[in-house]
Design brief:
The protein is α/β, with parallel strands linked by helices. It has 13 helices and 17 strands. Its EC number is 3.2.1.-.
Length: about 425
C-alpha cells in the first residue's frame, strides 16, 4: 500500500461521530461479561449434560466463577442468558415464563442471585413470533414483555431477529427499545437488527440503529473455528468505512462473542481475537466454560492493559490500515490526546501460516504517528517488556508468530524530554 493510501486510511479514523444515540446513559464503554450462546447453544439435555444445559444451575455456577476467579474485577459483570430459557407458550395473562424444569425458581430468583454476587443480569428474546429456536417471541406482546423484564430486574436485553419480516425492523426494534425505556429500569439494549437486513441486501439505517440500540450485531454468528474468527474480522475490515463512524459511547458495533478458552483457538489465535476486539471497541462477552479454562487463556482474558484499550473512553472504533507481507496493521486512536495528536493502540496481526515467526519492520512515520515529542510504547501481551520512547523516524521491528499478534500501546508524550538516551529502534517479540 502506498504512503498516500495509508494516510487516507488513517484520516478515516477521525471521522466525526454521530451525535445522536440511545438516550439511556448506559454502555458508555463496550459492555463486558459472559453470554451462553456460543459455547452452550440450545442444549436442553440436562440428563446427559447436567453441567452444560441451559438451566439456572449453569448461570448460578457462572456467576459464582466470575467472582471467585476474579473476572468481575476486570469488568466482566454481565451474566446473559441466550435462547431456550423460556417455554413455547405464555401464561394465561400473556406473560413469558421460564421452563419450569430447568429454571424451577423462575427468572426473578435467578436475577436476584446474580445481583447478590455484585453482577448484572441479562436475558434473550426475539422480535418475531418465535425465538430463533422456536420458543415464544415478543411479537404482539412487546409492552408486557418489556414490563416483565423490568419486574424481573433485568439489566441487559438481547433481542434477536427471527420469525419476522426484515422490512419491519426499522419500526419493531426501536419500538421495543422505547418500551424498555418507558419501564424506568435501566436496561442495556442489544439488537441483532443490522445483521438480518444486511444479509437480505436491505440498506441499513445505521443512524436509526445507533439512536435505538446500545450495541448491535452486524454479521453472522461466530463459530468455533479460527476460520470463522478470520471471516468476522475480514468482514469488519471490508465494511469499516461504513460501520466505524457509528460506534461510540453508548452505541457499539458487535462482532460477537469471544471464543477464548474453548476448543478451537490456539494460544496465539486467542491473543489475536482479544487484540482485535479491543481495537474494534467491541463488547467483550466470553462464551466459555469458566471452570475448565487453562491458566494461559485466563491470563489473556484478564489482561488489564488490553482491556484498558477496549474500554478507552474516546470510544473510537479502530480500523485495518494496511496489509503487507502477510501482516495486517490495525490502529485505534485512544487517550491521552493533545491538540490534534492522539495516542494509539496498534495491532500487527500475522496471517502467515508458515511455521516460523516473521520479522516485520516499519516506522512510526509510515504509520502517520507525527507527535513531535514522540510516543511511549509498550507491548501489552508481554508483561516484562520495557516502555520505549520513539520518534516518528524510529524503526519498529515486530517478530510475530504464525496467526499471532503483537499489540502495542503508544502514548503521546505531551512535553519535551530527553529522548536521545533511548533506543531509536524497538524490537518486539511474540511471547
Amino acid at each position: 500500500m502506498s504512503h498516500s493510501m495509508i494516510k487516507i486510511c488513517l484520516s478515516l479514523l477521525f471521522i466525526c461521530k454521530i451525535s445522536l444515540a440511545l438516550d439511556n446513559g448506559l454502555a458508555l464503554t463496550p459492555p463486558m461479561g459472559w453470554l451462553a450462546w456460543q459455547r452452550f447453544r440450545c442444549n436442553i439435555d440436562c440428563s446427559n449434560f447436567p453441567d452444560e444445559c441451559i438451566s439456572e444451575k449453569l448461570f448460578i455456577t457462572t456467576a459464582d466463577l466470575l467472582v471467585s476467579e476474579g473476572y468481575d474485577k476486570f469488568g466482566y459483570n454481565y451474566v446473559v442468558i441466550d435462547d431456550c430459557w423460556m417455554q413455547t407458550n405464555r401464561t394465561a395473562d400473556g406473560k413469558l415464563q421460564a421452563d419450569k424444569k430447568r429454571f424451577p425458581n423462575g427468572i426473578k430468583a435467578l436475577a436476584d442471585y446474580v445481583h447478590s454476587k455484585g453482577l448484572k443480569f441479562g436475558i434473550y428474546e426475539s422480535v418475531g413470533s418465535k425465538s430463533c429456536e422456536g420458543y415464544a417471541g415478543i411479537a404482539g406482546h412487546e409492552q408486557i414483555d418489556a414490563q416483565t423484564f423490568a419486574e424481573w430486574e433485568v439489566d441487559y436485553v438481547k433481542l434477536d431477529g427471527c420469525y419476522t419480516d426484515e422490512q419491519n425492523m426499522n419500526k419493531s426494534f426501536p419500538q421495543f427499545g422505547k418500551y424498555l425505556n418507558e419501564t424506568g429500569r435501566p436496561m442495556v439494549y442489544s439488537c441483532c437488527w443490522p445483521f438480518y437486513q444486511e444479509r437480505k441486501g436491505i440498506n441499513v439505517n445505521y443512524t436509526l440503529v445507533a439512536q435505538s440500540c446500545n450495541l448491535w450485531r452486524n454479521y453472522g454468528d461466530i463459530q468455533e473455528s479460527y476460520d470463522s474468527l478470520v471471516d468476522v474480522f475480514d468482514h469488519f475490515a471490508l465494511k469499516q468505512d461504513i460501520w466505524a463512524k457509528y460506534a461510540g459511547p453508548g452505541h457499539w458495533n458487535d462482532p460477537d462473542m469471544l471464543l477464548i478458552g474453548n476448543f478451537a483457538l490456539s494460544y496465539e489465535q486467542s491473543k489475536t481475537q482479544m487484540a482485535l476486539w479491543s481495537i474494534l471497541a467491541a463488547p467483550l462477552f466470553m462464551s466459555n466454560k469458566l471452570s475448565t479454562i487453562k491458566p494461559e487463556y485466563k491470563k489473556i482474558l484478564q489482561n488489564k492493559e488490553v482491556i484498558r484499550v477496549n474500554q478507552d473512553k474516546l470510544g473510537i472504533q479502530g480500523k485495518r490500515i494496511y496489509e503487507d507481507q502477510g501482516i495486517e496493521v490495525w490502529m485505534r486512536p485512544i487517550e491521552p490526546t493533545k491538540a490534534e495528536y492522539y495516542s494509539f493502540a496498534i495491532a500487527f496481526v500475522s496471517r502467515r501460516t508458515i511455521g516460523t515467526p516473521f520479522l516485520y519492520t516499519t516506522t512510526l512515520n509510515k504509520l502517520q504517528m507525527k507527535n513531535p515529542f514522540g510516543y511511549k510504547i509498550k507491548d501489552l501481551f508481554d508483561v516484562n517488556s520495557n516502555i520505549q520512547v520513539l520518534k516518528s523516524n524510529s524503526t519498529l521491528k515486530a517478530i510475530i508468530n504464525p496467526s499471532g499478534v503483537i499489540l502495542l500501546r503508544a502514548d503521546i508524550i505531551t512535553q519535551h524530554e530527553d529522548i536521545e538516551k533511548h533506543l531509536n529502534e524497538f524490537y518486539i517479540t511474540s511471547v
